[in-house]
Amino acid sequence: MSGSGTSNTKTVCVTGASGYIASWLVKFLLLRGYTVKATVRDPDDPKRTEHLLLLDGAKERLKLVKADLLEEGSFDSAVDGCEGVFHTASPFIANITDPQRQLIDPALKGTLNVLGSCAKFPCVKRVVLTSSCAAVLYNARPRNPDVIVDETWFSDPEFCKQSKQWYVISKTLAEEAAWNFAKEKGMDIVAINPSGVIGPLLQPTLNASATVILDLINGGKSFPNASFGWVDVRDVANAHVLAYENPAASGRYCLAERVAHCSDLVNILKGIYPSLHLPEKCADDKPFAPKFQISKEKAKSLGIEFIALEESLKDMVESFKEKQFIDF
């Protein structure tokens, strides 16, 4: 997606534009010639905006708009005049004390507020929603190497409440609400459901998945006993653009280059950076969490060719160095 030189006069909106995925999405949209209205909570905070303002094409075609997920009508001015809306804004908080207030309300009400604004403007032709494999994977169905997870899977909020997986619940309820709203209003929505997102950072702050990798290389004593799908942030941003531009795109798209246990990540990092002090042991003595498969068929039909996990990890570590999160 490196500057395909397509000339667009179209205007699109990206919510939560300072985030990890959204920053790459804004970059790719500008490279493709779009005018981008980017919502941020505080347009005057350089931590949220400086990296966006430095992007190619930003001077001419990037407009920052202040908006708040929990404020109804807050996105009206951002969405007005846009043909496409990319809703990426959603909270991820590590220390949860009040899941309803901190995670579920902003995800659920935020999605409905953004879609409510979209419904007011007939100019909006399609909404691309950043959901997550969190809204796909977590239910009572077994996951083992023979199991192939695909877009027909949905997480079960009741099942997730038992294990207090509040982030999963927030993403599941938000996506479900979006589909119901779209059906009721006859709105064209496509959902992108990435796995754990890795790869280089554009923003100056650490996001949740970056922290997982940084903890491994910053002298972590052990690695988590967990298997996740992993996908490069550039593929995720690219998938959003393709889902918007391809008239035949519909429904949900799961994104994972592969499913890997955290021990696999450690081994890949050891191979690339032999001098790193990486954790030798697992966080518990249980058998390793089984790997499973996430179907790539639908993503490939969109035109995604996945960047290899090894390359994503290397590029992520190099961007940590560049941003001085690590020094070796």
Automatic annotation (TrEMBL):
<comment type="similarity">
    <text>Belongs to the NAD(P)-dependent epimerase/dehydratase family. Dihydroflavonol-4-reductase subfamily.</text>
</comment>
<keyword id="KW-0521">NADP</keyword>
<dbReference type="InterPro" id="IPR050425">
    <property type="entry name" value="NAD(P)_dehydrat-like"/>
</dbReference>
<protein>
    <submittedName>
        <fullName>NAD-dependent epimerase/dehydratase</fullName>
    </submittedName>
</protein>
<dbReference type="Pfam" id="PF01370">
    <property type="entry name" value="Epimerase"/>
</dbReference>
<keyword id="KW-0560">Oxidoreductase</keyword>
<dbReference type="InterPro" id="IPR036291">
    <property type="entry name" value="NAD(P)-bd_dom_sf"/>
</dbReference>
<dbReference type="InterPro" id="IPR001509">
    <property type="entry name" value="Epimerase_deHydtase"/>
</dbReference>
<dbReference type="GO" id="GO:0016616">
    <property type="term" value="F:oxidoreductase activity, acting on the CH-OH group of donors, NAD or NADP as acceptor"/>
</dbReference>
<feature type="domain" description="NAD-dependent epimerase/dehydratase">
    <location>
        <begin position="12"/>
        <end position="250"/>
    </location>
</feature>
